C-alpha cells in the first residue's frame, strides 16, 4: 500500500511542459527527488499527492489511482513548499484542523501525538506567526502526519531552515523512513539529498534523468570533466607535476588577484582527488586550498542531460 508508481506521467500548463513522460516507483524508506529550480519537482509531488491531475499517464498508490481517490488521500501526507496560510492559528489548532478534516476518531489525541513526533509540544500553543522557519516546517509536518499516513511527501522541506533545525528535520525524516514509511522529499541541493536519502530520483527540465542509490548518482555526477582551483606553496612546480597525472587534461597558472593559483581540468574527479595529496607530498609541496569551480548543481545537471 505504500508503493507509489508513476507510469508515463506528463503534465503541461498551456504549452509549458512541466513534467515529460516520467515513470518511477517510490517505495518505503527515504527517497530524494533531486533537480534544479523549475525541473518539475513541485508538479510531480502535487501529482503524487493527488492534488493535481496528470495531463497524461497515471499515478497509483498500492495499485489504485491517486487522483480523486479519497482512500489514497488517507494514506498520503503532504508538506507543501508554501507557508501555512493561517499563521494566526497556534500550531496545535493548525494540526487539529487537519485531524478534523480527516475525521479522525480522537483528533485531540492524534494532534498531541503528531506534535510530539515533531518535537513541537512546547511551542504548540503559540501562534504560528511567531515560529521560526524550522518550526513552521515542523508544524506543517505534524499536520501532514496527524492521520498516520504510510506515504509522506515533502516539497523542499529544508529551504531556509537553519542548520540546527535542518539536522533535527533530517533525523525526523530518517526515523520516518526507518519506521517503514515511504518518504519522498524534493531538493535542489546535492548534499542535502546525500545525507538522508537511501534512494535518489533526478529530474531535469521535466524529464527523469537518473535513478539509483546515492553512490550511483554521485558516480554519474563525478565521472565527468571537472575544473578545480588549487593554491599551494609552489604553484609552478605543482602545475608541472600535475601535467603528469592520468586524470589531468589541462593545467594553467593564473594570478587573478595578484596571488597565483593553478587551474586544473580533470577527467576523473575521484582519481584526481586521491592522487593529489600523494603527488604534493612527494614533491614537497603544501596544498593550501582545493576548490571545485564548476560544482554547481546546474553544471552537473547540464552534463547529465547531455550524456
Ligand atoms: N500553474 C502553472 N502554470 C504555468 N506554468 C507552471 C505552473 N506551475 C509550474 N509551471 C512551470 O512548470 C515548470 C516546472 O515547475 P515546478 O514548480 O514543478 O518545478 P520545481 O522543480 O518544483 O521548481 P522549484 O524548485 O523552482 O519550485 C516550470 O517551468 C514552471 O514555470
UniProtKB/TrEMBL annotation:
Tell me which Gene3D superfamilies the record gives: P-loop containing nucleotide triphosphate hydrolases
What SUPFAM superfamilies does the record tag this protein with?
P-loop containing nucleoside triphosphate hydrolases (SSF52540)
Which UniProt keyword terms apply here? Answer: ATP-binding, Nucleotide-binding, Transport
For this chain, one GO molecular function annotation is: ATP hydrolysis activity
Q: Which SMART domains match?
A: AAA
**Highest taxon of source:** Bacteria
Q: Does the keyword Transport apply?
A: yes
CDD domains annotated for this entry? ABC_DR_subfamily_A
PANTHER family, alphabetized = ABC TRANSPORTER RELATED, ABC TRANSPORTER, ATP-BINDING PROTEIN
| Domain ABC transporter: start-end pairs | 4-230
The organism is Ornithinimicrobium cerasi
Protein name from the UniProt record: ABC-2 type transport system ATP-binding protein
The family assignment reads: Belongs to the ABC transporter superfamily.
Amino acid at each position: 500500500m505504500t508503493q507509489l508508481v508513476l507510469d508515463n506521467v506528463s503534465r503541461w500548463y498551456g504549452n509549458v511542459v512541466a513534467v515529460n513522460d516520467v515513470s518511477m516507483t517510490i517505495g518505503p524508506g527515504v527517497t530524494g527527488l533531486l533537480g534544479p529550480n523549475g525541473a518539475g519537482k513541485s508538479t510531480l509531488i502535487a501529482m503524487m499527492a493527488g492534488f493535481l491531475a496528470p495531463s497524461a499517464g497515471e499515478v497509483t498508490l498500492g495499485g489504485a489511482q491517486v487522483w480523486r481517490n479519497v482512500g489514497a488521500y488517507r494514506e498520503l501526507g503532504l508538506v507543501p513548499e508554501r507557508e501555512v496560510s493561517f499563521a494566526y492559528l497556534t500550531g496545535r489548532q493548525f494540526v487539529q484542523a487537519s485531524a478534523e478534516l480527516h475525521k479522525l476518531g480522537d483528533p485531540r489525541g492524534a494532534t498531541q501525538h503528531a506534535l510530539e513526533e515533531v518535537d513541537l509540544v512546547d511551542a504548540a500553543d503559540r501562534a504560528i506567526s511567531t515560529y521560526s522557519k524550522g518550526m513552521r516546517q515542523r508544524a506543517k509536518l505534524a499536520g501532514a502526519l496527524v492521520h498516520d499516513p504510510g506515504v509522506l511527501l515533502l516539497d523542499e522541506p529544508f529551504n531556509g531552515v537553519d542548520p540546527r533545525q535542518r539536522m533535527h528535520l533530517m533525523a525526523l525524516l530518517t526515523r520516518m523512513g526507518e519506521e517503514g514509511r515511504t518518504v519522498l522529499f524534493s531538493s535542489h541541493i546535492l548534499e542535502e539529498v546525500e545525507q538522508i536519502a537511501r534512494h535518489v530520483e533526478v529530474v531535469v527540465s521535466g524529464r527523469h534523468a537518473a535513478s539509483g542509490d546515492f553512490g550511483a548518482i554521485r558516480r554519474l555526477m563525478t565521472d565527468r570533466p571537472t575544473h578545480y582551483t588549487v593554491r599551494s606553496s609552489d604553484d609552478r612546480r605543482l602545475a608541472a607535476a600535475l601535467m603528469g597525472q592520468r586524470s589531468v587534461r589541462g593545467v594553467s597558472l593564473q594570478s587573478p588577484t595578484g596571488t597565483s593559483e593553478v587551474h586544473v581540468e580533470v577527467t576523473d574527479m575521484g582519481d584526481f582527488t586521491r592522487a593529489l595529496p600523494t603527488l604534493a607530498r612527494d614533491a614537497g609541496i603544501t596544498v593550501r586550498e582545493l576548490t571545485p569551480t564548476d560544482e554547481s548543481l546546474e553544471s552537473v545537471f547540464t552534463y547529465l542531460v547531455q550524456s
